[in-house]
Amino acid sequence: MAKDNGFLYVVATPIGNLDDISQRAIDTLKQADWIAAEDTRHTGRLLQHLAISAKTIALHDHNEKQRAASIIQKCQAGENVALVSDAGTPLISDPGYSLVRQCREAGVRVIPIPGPCALITALCAAGLPTDKFHFIGFLLPKSQQRQNQLADVPAAVGTIICYDTARRIKDTLQDVALVFGAERELVLAKELTKTFEHLEYGTAEQITTWLEADPQRCQGEMVLMIAPTPKADSEISDAAQATLKLLLAELPVKKAAAITAEIHGMKKNALYKLALQFTGESE
Ligand code: SAM
User: Fold this and answer.
1) pTM of the full structure
2) What percent of the chain has pLDDT over 70?
3) Ranges for the Tetrapyrrole methylase domain (predicted)?
């Protein structure tokens, strides 16, 4: 008799505090025939902590497409495979998309085992609107690329959530101020669920000042959240805002607002006010 297919379990693991692992995640890892991990040594430490001795397979960005075939074969032969990443939910700025997609196409059932995820953990404690939000993953490493990445986000998406590194955060804050204006409300969530967990609220400049007050604050893992466009701005179309931002990089506020008004057939005044918000200048 043919053996029933096994399953692929997508298992979330802690983002810092090991107590955040769910009972269901522990049970799933215990009963899995294989654990596909981004970094087998890193996951080995978690498994050791949980006293689980399963066979591990390395699955990372560079081998995922090829590894997927052998994982699917295992599932089709009746074995259960659990996919984990170094921290949090697999596939969220982590490997696994290609594997899950290929499992779906091959008819292998994919079962999610939910748990920690840095972006949701950060958002639920930030006090920023949660009805609509837009996750852009990791910010790009170079300043100009990063500014373009941020400027491409339409105004109506709600709170914007980004992953960033300690090394780049101060440059990122400068770019955020350039693109969204010096007055935009931001929240930086650091070291979530860990000993030095901290959420800092303020403008780009205020958060930079806080970071600079102690070199240790520029270390650790972080999620940056950008509050949605203030109400008055949302009446100005995304296209007009994008034009205004581009022109402001080259022209004084008045001129940039006037040209944008002409291109988009709008009144100058609202654009002028928005331009002041973007640049942090006063009237
Ligand atoms: N899959 C993970 C998840 O579910 O959130 C994200 C993995 S991604 C490679 C790692 C990034 O997530 C870090 O650079 C940081 O931006 C964010 N992150 C992970 N753990 C965090 C924590 N404890 N506190 C703040 N940010 C964290």
Assistant:
1) 0.84
2) 98
3) 8-207
